[in-house]
Amino acid sequence: MKHFLDITRETCPMTFVKVKLKLARMEKGEHLEVLLNPGEPLENVPRSCEEQGFKVLSNEPTDDNKHLLLIEK
Amino acid sequence: MNLPANKKKISIVCFSGDFDKMVAAFTIASGAAATNREVTLFFTFWGLNALKKNKGRAATGNSFMAKAFNFLMGGLNNLPLSRLNFFGASPKLMTMMMKKHNVATLPELVEAAHALGVRIVACEMAMRILEVEQSDMIEEVEDVVGVATFLNDSEDAHIIFI
C-alpha cells in the first residue's frame, strides 16, 4: 500500500516529525510518498529516514520546484 | 521501547519557564526525536510551570508562599516571553504570528514531543520548594528525579541547558 504526505507547508521541526509519525503508523514494507521543498527538508528528511533503516527508493524533482521522495518502511 | 545501543542521546534541562525558550526546547526535542535520537527533557524551577496539569493559574501547594508563587506563575498558557512580554500579551501575539507563518505552536510542539516518545522527567528539589506534586503535573511526566539520576541517565548524552 502506498501512503502520501505533503510537507511543503510545514517548517522545521514538523517536516521530520510528520514523516516520522506517518512512518510509525505504517506496516513494514509499505511505501510512503513525501512531497517536500528543496533546502532543509530535502537535505535532511531522506538522510534521517535512511539513518532509521528505511529505504529511500527514489528522489525526483517535480515541475513546480518541489521534490517527491519515495520511502519504503 | 527497545533502543539500539548506538542511538544518539540528547538531554535538555528546561530551567527557564519563558515561552520562547520553551518553544526552543520543544523544537530541539521533537526534531531530535524525529531524527532518531533518544531525548530526555529535565524540567526544573520555572520550567516546571510548563508541566502543570492546570494550564492556567491555580494556587497549587500547601503554604501561602507556594500557593502565591504557583498562582502568579501559572501554567503553559501563562509562560511569559523572555523579552517584550507586555504583561502577557506578547506570547499570544507570537502564537498568532507562528500560526500565520505555518510554524508549529507551543502546544503542537508539546504534543509532537509526546507522540515521539520524548522522555519527560521533573526535578524533585524544585518540586519540593514549589510544593508541586506529581499528581499536579501532566501524565506524560515519566518520573521525578534528582540531579544524580539525571546525570547518570545523561552520561553519554549531549546536555543542553535552556
Automatic annotation (TrEMBL), chain A:
Gene3D superfamilies: TusA-like domain (3.30.110.40). InterPro entries: TusA-like, TusA-like_sf. One of its GO terms (molecular function) is transferase activity. It comes from the Bacteria. Transmembrane segments: none annotated. Keywords: Transferase. Residues 4-73 form the UPF0033 domain. Belongs to the sulfur carrier protein TusA family. This is Sulfurtransferase TusA family protein. It comes from Mariprofundus erugo.
From TrEMBL, chain B:
Pfam families: DrsE_2. This is Peroxiredoxin family protein.
